Amino acid sequence: MLHVSGPQERLVAQLARIKELSGLSLRALARQTGLSSSSLSRYLTGRLVPPWEAVVALCRAVGRDPRPLRALWAEAAEAGAAPARRRNDLPADLFDFTGRKAESALVEELLRTTGAAAIDGMAGVGKTSLAVHVAHRLVPAYPDGGLYLDLQGFTPGQEPLEPHAALGRLLGALDVTHPPAGTVERAALWRSELSRLRILVVLDNAVDAEQVRPLLPGAGKSGVLVTSRHRLVSLDAVPPVSLEPLADDDAAHLFGRAAGLSLTEEEPVGQVLRQCGGLPLALRMAGARLRHRPGWTVAVLAERLRATPSRFDAAFGMSLQQLDAVQRRMFRLLGLLPGADFDAAVAGALTDMPPDRAGAALEELVDAHLVQEPSPGRYRMHDLIRQYAADIAAEEEPRAEAALRRVLAHYLAQAVAHERTLPSPHRKDPSPGDPARAMAWFDLEYVNLVACFDAAVRLGVDEVVAELPQAMRVWFFRHRGTDDQARLLEAAAAAAARLGRDRQRASLLADLGFARAAAGRLTEALSAYELAEQSGPDDDTAAALALRIGFVRRDLGDLEAAQAHFRRARELFEKLGRHMGQSQALAFDGWVTLRLGRLDEAVELARASVALADGPAQITGLVTLGLALAPDDPAESLRTLHDALKLSEQHNLQHNQAWCHNHLGVALRITGAPEKALEHHRRAFELLEPLAEVQLEMDFLHAYAETCRVAGRYEEALALLDRAIELARELDRPYDEKLARAAREVVRAAC
């Protein structure tokens, strides 16, 4: 349970007083101070200690001197500090990193003094190598770890990563698995998270300043290193460091290390260096070529390189010559592979080879510096080499599309196999396997799965387009709010329609409606559900649809219609023998019945729900039962709600944990303990923070505000209701706005 410290409570009171003095709404005050309204709401309700810069901005908005608050803010920040987290997903440092002493020193100095640097230079000049090398050297200075993200600015066959998606991945690296929906809100949360940590972030392969700007840290001691082929002159807070090709001495040293030789042939070495243009990538490949041909001299290598006019074709082509036909074919096809990285099984599917033979071929490509192995068993290609391979494949691989189709089929089969081991209301018994391992596989391959989906759309492989999002259903449920989900489901439903699979289309539309409802877009959710009903769903989907339409009707305030849908869902689940679904329908029927004022009936429905389920499936029924018991049996009510919370924690269900804490707050308020209730409301919002669950946020805001009103914390209640009104307007939710405005009038009258 979260216990808000005394200093933090006093700081919240001071901030609430500032808002009152401003005479502005939450949104207007946020606009005037340059803060996001969601962040300001968290500051005013004690869910987050603001950075000092935010306190200064608020004080200036009302003409107050912020300095008297500095000591109180420091106490609150210390009391509310998050435990240290450590993560390091930086690629491995190069064992033969050579030269760049002046540039390394400059980058390190810029990180110490400004917290940022942008390394620019031509392709293959070693920008990423320098950034990673410096990052590894500075690891002790960043105790919370190092993050790496490839922004795909110049990756062949892929669009540059949009800031919205990039922020989602960066927040995910900080265990924020459900980032906010908007880019501005994501950027604010990203800066807020970094302000409490000391992390070095490497943003590799940026296309331009606009891609990078939303990803930069704000206040705090975190640092950022950016690489790009372009000089990012408009990033005022990120000084540039431009790389030139290696000078002859450093180039010769690197070439010698790659070749494994002590070089004495000065003139031939100079010819090799000129042909490679001082580019580390080309030098390593030329050196590897010489190392694999012990009978050659440097002069022979120089002659071979001179035979090819382009230094890239020379270096890459020379490396290809040391490979056999099978290895060369794998290299060509890897240039077409969708996704960021891959393993031997994927390479085997691409080339139609067994994984062990594919693995052996990959090792040869690694030795030739044509493929990188950033972590054991995971491979990737430099953008330049990938483009070179793709260009060759376009000329020499007439069956390239067949190879890609094998990869798509491989990923789909793997996704389906892993998904079947995961528990879900849509199946009676999962397949044997380790669910944790399956979820870890989806986490690892998520970027590649989305890239394969997009490739399937381009190739018109409707089978993969229609089935892959369904194979990711459970993963998406655990990561609700993921950027790609709605886009994938919309395209999948269209593909299912083209295939004439009406039932599959109905199932996909039902999932699309659920994703939209979680984002608080209830009208859009209903539209998807109605299309699903018109598509002829099977019995399982029809039952799920009845339950989900009930959720939307409940959230729109149409309780009678919601109850009718919950009872219809119960009948359908009962006919199917789906006890878990039947239990959920009973629980939500009880929930609506409680809202309609029929207490005894609600208790009976909730008890029936709990009796039908076991494990985490009991949570909904237990929460409903706990709330229904609160007026007449406070002790049993709290015990039941704590049982629900315990189940949520045991199974690491963060949505349910937040839900349970919120309703523990409601029950404690009903039973006359509003101050203790506030602790649970705060904990609920702390858990909700990374989840991007707009509908839950709306529900929690109303409950938290009412508890604040009962506790006499009127300013906090008004701040929460202001946020509810703002959210309702954003989502075009007049019913919720009306409720929040009515509650606001009640609070105003009590002030």
From TrEMBL:
Coiled coil: none annotated. It comes from the Bacteria. InterPro entries: Cro/C1-type_HTH, Lambda_DNA-bd_dom_sf, P-loop_NTPase, TPR-like_helical_dom_sf, TPR_rpt, WH-like_DNA-bd_sf. Residues 15-69 form the HTH cro/C1-type domain. Gene3D superfamilies: lambda repressor-like DNA-binding domains, P-loop containing nucleotide triphosphate hydrolases, Tetratricopeptide repeat domain, Winged helix-like DNA-binding domain superfamily/Winged helix DNA-binding domain. It holds the Pfam family TPR_12. This is Tetratricopeptide repeat protein. It comes from Microbispora bryophytorum subsp. camponoti.
